[in-house]
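TICKET: design request
STATUS: open
ATTACHED STRUCTURE:
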């Protein structure tokens, strides 16, 4: 493995911290979350869903989700409007992802290719869980944005709900719909002392 290439790859990954999730612009969000922020919560949701569903190693799901958006460092986060002008958005994203992997080589390259392909092919239980986690993360962000006055964010919640496959994800979605994004800290009782 070429250490110089690995160093450059790690610098490239840092771009995900400043790459905005551009679809939120259509909901009127001026400063949306970054791809890195989305990926972090998505991987953790994936781990939780894998544990709830059983029969799947949560590490595989979390790893699949940690790497699935890496190609966006090179092609950006393509929202639904952007995608209308790409002949094949999935091909562009996979091409950029596999180009990145050439810098890593070895076992990392092979394992990450497997995870990426599994996520894209949507055939395994792990991929189904990962896809649900990816959608749930968007729905949770949309719920927060909706409460902050971005009414178009409701569409993300509704469209995600229609796509969920696992029972665990459906249960989480149903409960999330009834909750508020600030319930977690109010349940701690911290606000009562102010």
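STATUS: resolved
RESOLUTION: sequence designed for all positions
ATTACHED SEQUENCE:
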């Amino acid at each position: 493995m070429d250490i110089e290439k690995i160093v450059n790859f790690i610098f490239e990954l840092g771009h995900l911290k400043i790459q905005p999730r551009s679809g939120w612009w259509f909901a009127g969000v001026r400063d949306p979350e970054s791809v890195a922020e989305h990926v972090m919560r998505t991987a953790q949701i994936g781990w939780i869903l894998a544990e709830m569903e059983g029969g799947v190693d949560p590490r595989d799901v979390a790893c699949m989700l940690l790497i699935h958006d890496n190609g966006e460092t090179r092609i950006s986060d393509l929202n639904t409007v952007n995608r209308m002008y790409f002949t094949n958005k999935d091909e562009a994203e996979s091409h950029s992802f596999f180009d990145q992997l050439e810098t890593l080589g070895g076992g990392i390259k092979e394992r990450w290719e497997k995870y990426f392909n599994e996520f894209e092919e949507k055939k395994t239980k792990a991929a189904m869980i990962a896809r649900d986690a990816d959608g749930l993360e968007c729905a949770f962000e949309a719920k927060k944005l909706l409460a902050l006055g971005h009414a178009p964010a409701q569409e993300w919640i509704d469209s995600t709900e229609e796509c969920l496959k696992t029972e665990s994800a459906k249960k989480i979605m149903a409960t999330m719909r009834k909750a508020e994004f600030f319930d977690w800290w109010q349940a701690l009782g911290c606000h009562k002392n102010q």
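CLOSING REMARK: The longest helix spans residues 125-147. The chain has one domain: 3-183.
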